[in-house]
User: What shape does this take?
Amino acid sequence: MTERRGRFPIGATIAMLVALAALVGLGLWQLQRLTWKTDLLARIAALQGAPATLLGPALDSAADGANLQFRRVVVDCPGLAQAPFLELYGLREGGAGSRLISACKVDAARYRTILVDRGFVADTISARPPVDGAATAPVRMVGVLRLPDKATFVTPPNDVAANRWFSRDVAAMAKALDAPAPAPLFLMAETSSNPEWKALTPAPIPTEIPNRHFEYALTWFGLAGSLLAVYAAMLWRRWKS
Assistant: This one.
């Protein structure tokens, strides 16, 4: 019994330390995400009350696209109501559908076009807005500039031939739309490009963005504390036996 009491559980201790480091690391990562999400929500809140600025000067004033993230702008897009479009898979309020992506000419020194996310059409609607590539009637649109999210390993590949897109690939989409020198952002429409076509719903930013990272961090830290408690109890029983 004395010999057993003197043995230190090296293997169990190493496993515990590895698991503890992982749990604490996840908790710290969630705290970092909390800081990022809090800043993001503050920027969105400021955006909601900010006046729109002209798109062209905004594009020329920024060093890169990241500086324009969530900027509200206004632009006159020739023929946007009848412009050709790509269909990007999307979800809105739990329902699947497509976001229509068109190109808009811009008056900027650095870029000649920008891709416009005109809004969401539910899968229950088979109709689409009319397309006339020769249309030139300008559509004044207010929108929000957003950097495209990167595709992940679970994102399906884009099917250019079938016009089914699953990731916002600016270069590929601009090529498909014959849009030269595109800006590295998307213009997410806040106002309608087709007021007479009500099925197309502008949806620039989610109405509610969850921020539960502090809760998640407490969960990971709580699991780390529980692991330490179990390990301490194991040591206590071991040395008392």
The first strand starts at residue 53 and ends at 54. The mean pLDDT is 88.
